[in-house]
Amino acid sequence: MSKQFEGQNIIEGYHIEVEQVLSNVKYNMYQFQNVHPYDIKCPVCLNVYLDPISCDSCMNHFCKECYQQKQSTKCPLCSHQCETRKAFPLLRQLLSQLKIRCHHFDQGKASIMNIGCQVIVDYDAYDKHVKQCDYSEEVCGLVDGKLQCNVIKFKKDIQNHRTYECNYRQCECCHCHQFFSSFKLQMHELKCEEALTRCPKCHTQIKIKDQSSHLLICDQNIEKCIYCSGEYAWHQLLIHQNECPQREVCCVGCSQKFTLSVYYIHQTNCPKFPQICPSCNQKVTREQFENHNFKDCLIYIKSQHDQEIQNLIQKHKQLEIELGKKDTIIKFSNRFKDPDIFLNLDKTNALVKQTANKKKDRFVLFNNPISEQRKQWKFKCSQVKSSWYAVGITELSTLHSQKKYQDIGHGSYLVSSNGTMYNNHKDDQNSKESDFRINTNDIIIIIVDLEADLLILYNTTQNLSLEIEAAFEGKDFYGCACLRTAGDEIQIIQ
Ligand SMILES: [Zn+2]
Ligand SMILES: [Zn+2]
Ligand SMILES: [Zn+2]
Ligand SMILES: [Zn+2]
Ligand SMILES: [Zn+2]
Ligand SMILES: [Zn+2]
Ligand SMILES: [Zn+2]
Ligand SMILES: [Zn+2]
């Protein structure tokens, strides 16, 4: 090997230094087998050309990498700003005649088995060989969760490592047939629920997971009775203890304590022991039962019935309260409304969706008439499009007949957005102007005074109020809105 370095000893030290700086150097001088490499070296890295190019101006050659790595675009030899071109065919031919020994040739020298890669290849095939060389190193890389095998092996040995040696290779548990990383398998097998063990009592072979359920039925799992100290298999013990003659019990009549065997006799003559009268089902003591007669039976039965009636009355009251609660929630009615008015899902918002310009009043009424529980409510007038947007109360009949509002008897008590009042029975309040107004987004509170025959309206947004005299006369009136124009919208606020 040293013979090949003849004639270049002077620069040897220098080129090793450069080699260490350039990380991409792929081969060393001593790898070349058949040609003296002295004259085909790159003047920058002083190594045999790697993928050479030439300077357009001075015709000198450089490794492509060496030329590209310097800061300026000037040629390192002639210092001209110049283009580069392909290497001369002669140089490429010269290079392709080189034979190179793979640089893995001393890999694994330390081990007796491995003497490194012995391959010698053509210059042009060198790149390809190094990439697939058996002696290139590879990290194993098998993983288990976040852990990874970082063992480094030669390419030729890596498959063997992954299959037979790696701590991370998947191995099957011989009991449950699940797969685990090799280093976890041993731990798993020690506690695998499918593994077999022997019952410590009867020595039958059972699975570890069945151990506790087996002990419940194992005939050899003997325990002592806490009362008589008799020995019983575990599954018979509970039954025995329940009926063990030595068990201490308390008489349900006189509260004295006895062993079970004595108690059986005692309960047949204890004067305090409870009996059930076959006629009235009443529980009485033995001594009371001797004097218990037909009259006692009747008294007891009556008291039972009275109690049941009380319970029913209580339940009924409860139901009425709940119904009352539901009834006080005020909503619009899907039945009592003009077909052009549309309600939202919870029936608290009404909107006119008619686009043809038919001039008519469109009523929407509440789902229940005004009552003691439903005599006050709040509107938000979300969209007021015309002066005939009105709120108030009306009778059901209004829905189905055209009314003349200038004459009394039209069935409604209303005020419209421009302040006109409409009064069912009182001429001087019917079709008459007032100071009341309703604009878009105003909040209106309406209170019906059933005692005083009065309808009171507050516009809390504009701070206006209005009283309309009414005559309820026991008729059903409904809270209502009277809308007219497409886009008119009103909402009940609870
Ligand atoms: Zn170079
Ligand atoms: Zn090799
Ligand atoms: Zn591994
Ligand atoms: Zn297992
Ligand atoms: Zn057993
Ligand atoms: Zn016992
Ligand atoms: Zn007793
Ligand atoms: Zn009785």
Automatic annotation (TrEMBL):
Q: Which Gene3D superfamilies match?
A: 2.60.120.920, Zinc/RING finger domain, C3HC4 (zinc finger)
Q: Which UniProt keywords apply?
A: Metal-binding, Zinc, Zinc-finger
Example of a GO MF term: zinc ion binding
Identify the PROSITE patterns for this entry. ZF_RING_2, ZF_TRAF
- List, for all copies, the residue spans of the domain called RING-type: 42-79
Q: Which residue range or ranges hold the TRAF-type domain?
A: 266-297
Quote a single Gene Ontology cellular component term.
cytoplasm
Zinc fingers (TRAF-type): give the ranges. 266-297
According to UniProt, the name of this protein is: RING-type domain-containing protein
